[in-house]
Amino acid sequence: MSNRQFNIAGRQIGGGAPCFIIAELSANHAGQKDVALETVRAAKRAGADAIKLQTYRADTITLDTDSKDFVIKQGTVWDGRKLFDLYEEAFLPWEWHKDIFELAEKEGLICFSSPFDPTAVDLLESLDAPAYKIASFEITDIPLIRLTASKGKPIIISTGIANKDDIDLAVATCLEAGNHDIALLKCTSSYPAPVHEANLNMIRELAERYNVVTGLSDHTTGTVVPTVSVALGGSIIEKHFILDKSLGGPDAGFSLDPAEFADMVDQVRAAESSLGVVNYDLTEKATRSREFSRSLYVAEEVKAGDKITKTNVRSVRPGFGMHPKHLEEIVGKTFSQDCEKGTRMDWPLIAE
């Protein structure tokens, strides 16, 4: 498991720090600025550490054409729609970004974004974005990765459509740009994603192979997958967040509402707490509980000179008597004195 870590706006990521939980705004603003702003407030109340945006316009991410290549047909919730139309509905107006960044800072949330072209990077630089996210489908856009990595800020990369060569090249591009603050997120690029395709063991594999911070960008509909990811070393969880599912929109079906997100945060924090540390020392409570362990007791009334047998000395609860490991050693020896049933077995009770 990697021990890598870096900081985003003073918040340690990785290296044993609490999991960095990101609420993904994405298209969950219904085209209304007030909804976007209230979503930021709700994310803070739900326990998120950060709010993440997506910075693009329809014409910076695709072409406005009726060509069949540009119509979605991948077995998704968006099948039959033109890419341009989908992105025209989903994009976050660039003039909202400044207000969202300022509100996030006021609320105590870290705000950053996924840029999709150089002009988006320019906008985010003007807002002093503290980190960059590379979306799953942009992992092959090496010029974009090179540009974002060159800004010297942490770069978080989703691996949803990536094969090993793609990841190798993306990581190498960041390193060549002098950027070692890299996180790789296991991601399943299905919308929604089936739980059985989560392949969370990849979190450990990515950490060990690339020596980077790792985590999860999750598109499943529940909270099981993100909670389990913590046990596998995930240091980041990104989950789509919506103020109210009745708002609809392209991402509503696999987003968590405030109550669900807060439940996920609680489960993740509980999972982190349960992991604890490697430590063979017992807590005070565990030490007291050893009273209920097994030990050797005189199991029937005996007289001095009687032989010790497995009938008159037994390993029973509680644990105040001799350690059970000595039973075979003392069988056949004799008692040094009379003993009542229930007497703690001890060395002075055994004749020399």
Explain this structure to me?
The protein has 352 residues and is of the alpha/beta class. The protein has two domains: 5-56 and 91-275, Aldolase class I (TIM Barrel), CATH 3.20.20; 284-349, Antifreeze-like/N-acetylneuraminic acid synthase C-terminal domain (Type Iii Antifreeze Protein Isoform Hplc 12). It has twelve helices and twelve strands. It has an eight-stranded parallel β-sheet. The chain has a two-stranded antiparallel sheet with strand order 1-2. The two termini are 55 Å apart.
Key features of this structure:
Type Iii Antifreeze Protein Isoform Hplc 12; 12 strands; alpha/beta; eight-stranded parallel beta sheet; 12 helices; elongated; TIM Barrel; 352 residues; two-stranded antiparallel ribbon
Report a brief summary of the structure.
The protein is an alpha/beta fold. The chain folds into two domains: 237 residues, Alpha-Beta Barrel (TIM Barrel), CATH 3.20.20; 66 residues, Antifreeze-like/N-acetylneuraminic acid synthase C-terminal domain (Type Iii Antifreeze Protein Isoform Hplc 12), CATH 3.90.1210. The chain has twelve helices and twelve strands.
Write the layout of secondary structure elements.
Blueprint: E1 5-8, E2 11-14, E3 20-24, H1 33-45, E4 50-55, H2 58-61, H3 83-90, H4 97-107, E5 110-115, H5 118-126, E6 132-134, H6 142-149, E7 155-158, H7 164-176, E8 182-187, H8 202-210, E9 213-218, H9 224-231, E10 236-240, H10 258-275, H11 284-289, E11 295-298, E12 313-316, H12 327-330
Parallel strand pairs: 3-4, 3-10, 4-5, 6-7, 7-8, 8-9, 9-10
Antiparallel strand pairs: 1-2, 11-12
Helix pairs in contact: 1-4, 6-7, 9-10
